[in-house]
Amino acid sequence: MSGAGVSQGLITVKVAKKVPEAQDIARFELAAMDGGALPAFTAGAHVSVHLGTGLIRQYSLCNSPEETHRYVLGVLREPAGRGGSARMHDEIHEGATLQIGLPRNQFVLDESAGFSLLLAGGIGITPLLAMAERLRVLGKRFDLRYCNRSPQRAAFLDRLDSAAFSQCARLHCDDGGGAGPLNLDDVLQDTRPDAHIYVCGPGGFIDHVLDRARAAGWTQAALHSERFTADTAASQAPGSTAFEVQVGRGGLVIPVAANQSVVAALQLHGIEIATSCEQGVCGTCLTRVLEGEVEHRDSYLTDGERAQGDIFLPCCSRARSARLVIAP
Questions:
Q1: What whole-number distance in Å separates Cα of residue 143 and Cα of residue 44?
Q2: What is the Rg, in whole angstroms, of the alpha carbon atoms belonging to the chain?
Q3: Can you give the residue ranges of every domain in the chain?
Q4: Which of 33, 151, 308, 322 measures 20 to 30 Å from 8, CA to CA?
Q5: Residues 289-293: what's their mean pLDDT?
Q6: What's the pLDDT band for 233 if we cut at 50, 70, 90?
Q7: If DSSP states are collapsed to H, E and C, what string results for 276-324?
């Protein structure tokens, strides 16, 4: 029985600890209000943190999935962000209560792989820490490479130094700290069929890793990534055309212009859909599709969910068909 109070898919938790981890990074440890167990999660999962006034942000769980008494988050202050990380750093303190969503995982670890290469850029270390913990428990071979600008900006170094898997982890810093800058082509040489790559961090870092991995002969099925911001190329792809959205079968039909999001078009007609990131990352605006074909431009849904065609993110995705009929 979980010790967390779950209501409408949200859990009320308390901030048991808040600790500076590195320059502009804080570690938050969340616990159930009664000190009991939290819902289980798998390596690579994240939770949505509800910060009030419509702010909802997603943070990866970076502790071991074997733990049930806490969720650990690493939060980077984003000066150019839209206020979520600043609120976490400036207004959320030890003892505070928060509402969070149930753990969700779009960055699933293939536990059958013979070897896993974990490549982290900056705050992208967070989901990979949970993966490293899980791989250690399974007795699997893996290598964790943590890339950062300098040791001062690298979070969780004490944890990495003391971890049971410390011999499998290496810090690479642009300023020469740690093991020095990563020689990516060297670590990508092992392309055997049972090896997988997991990469998380800034979009440019992810794109570089994936491009070099493909050039080295890695198959697409072996490449796994998670972005903390939307894939801009996908969400702003050229060639958008106008279409119509119908709200419910037999309901209001609303035109969506080529340069307009579904959310914006609906708002002009008094229909509000809750949003948070507005980039197709967080899933807050997830909407059911009754009819029509979706052109998915999000970074949230899994390939399987997209293939089913019955949900989409109207903040960024569009229609391939002339009309989409969505649930009212």
A1: 16
A2: 21
A3: 5-101, 115-227, 235-326
A4: 308
A5: 96
A6: very low
A7: CCCCCCCCCCCEEEEECCEECCCCCCCHHHHHHCCEECCCCCEECCCEE
Phi, psi of 135 (to 5 degrees): -65, -35
Indicate the fold that domain 115-227 takes in CATH.
Rossmann fold (3.40.50)
Measured distance CA(312)–CA(280) in Å, rounded: 9
Q: How far is Cα 99 from Cα 54, in angstroms, rounded to an integer?
A: 12
Helices (H), 53-178: 84-91, 125-138, 157-162
What is 5-101's CATH topology? Elongation Factor Tu (Ef-tu); domain 3 (2.40.30)
pTM of the model: 0.76
Distance CA 243, CA 257 (A): 7
Quick check: 229 and 281 in contact, CB under 8 A? yes
Total residue length of the chain: 328
CA distance linking residue 34 with residue 83, whole number of Å? 30
- Binning pLDDT at 50, 70 and 90, where does residue 146 land? very high
Task: Quote the CA–CA distance of 248 and 303 in Å, as a whole number.
Answer: 25
The pLDDT of residue 45: 96
Phi and psi (nearest 5°) for 310? -110, 5
CB 109 within 8 Å of CB 137: no
Q: Tell me the pLDDT of the chain averaged across its residues.
A: 89
* Residue 198 three-state SS: strand
Identical fold for domains 5-101 and 115-227, yes or no, is no
Distance CA 127, CA 170 (A): 16
Q: State the burial class of residue 117 (Cβ atoms within 10 Å of its Cβ: 0-12, 13-18, 19+).
A: buried
pLDDT at 37: 96
Nearest to 153 by CA among 133, 172, 166: 172
Reported as type and span, the H/E element at residue 184 is helix 184-187
Identify the CATH homologous superfamily for domain 235-326: Beta-grasp domain (3.10.20.30)
Q: How many CB atoms lie within 10 A of CB 87?
A: 17
Structure token digits, residue 283 = 């899933």
